[in-house]
Amino acid sequence: MKKIIFTDLDGSLLDHHDYSYxxxxxxxxxxxxxxxxxxxTTSKTAAEVIDLKAELANSYPFIVENGAGIFWNKGSLNxxxxxxxxxxxxxxxQSWGDDFEYMSLSPVLLPQILQISQNYKTQHQLSFIGFxxxxxxxxxxxxxxxxxxxxxxxxxxxxxxxxxQDSEQALTEFSQAMSQRGLQxxxxxxxxxxxxxxxxxxxxxxxxxxxxxxWQDQVQTxxxxxxxxxxxxLEASDYPVIICSPVxxxxxxxxxxxxxxxxxxxxxxxxAVLSWLxx
Length: 279
Prior knowledge:
Rossmann fold; 4-stranded antiparallel beta sheet; 10 helices; globular
């Protein structure tokens, strides 16, 4: 039985307030020692994740923008295995810069998403602002990210985070309207995310199938996350872990084995991973 971990970043592996992963280093060291893939699975962009992957010396595939895209280091992907994947039909692999290639799981292109959103906003006079409308300085203000990270957060390929400034009722109506247009609204920790009908759970299933074929062995998955956008990921895994958040209530996860950490962020992450490895 082989193991894989899929982990959210903000509020899970990374501290909600200062984005530190230092408390998780013992578990990361244990994963590396056992050659267990740990796949970063996030609402962040590829540009943001690539820097973090390098810092963490993580060479595994990664999932961005809430499951809308899966990225591989160039040359590491077995395209024949991917074509035999039972989760997706006719995967299309594209280059991303010189060092990566990716597959989109989103059926709607980002320019279409932005146009649909803006049309509805204007028509109904709603109050929200998307990343595409923000300056990098505004992203810094709303996220607390350093400026260089904010610039990379704006380099989106598949989805649009929205800073919602209107009522909950308006958000419900907006979500319903977007659903009729083939889109979905997902609540994250700080933003709501407008995107096509893909999610982190679908990406987990796709990569689990890929590894199952590559290894010719059963695969056991652990998923860790703290927000509503992590629910599909957690519910699709064998061992879901809700990371306790200092600012948000735990998401509702329908899974018989779900557990919630007592410690926040990377400290809870570290304890959960080490416990799973020792089981």
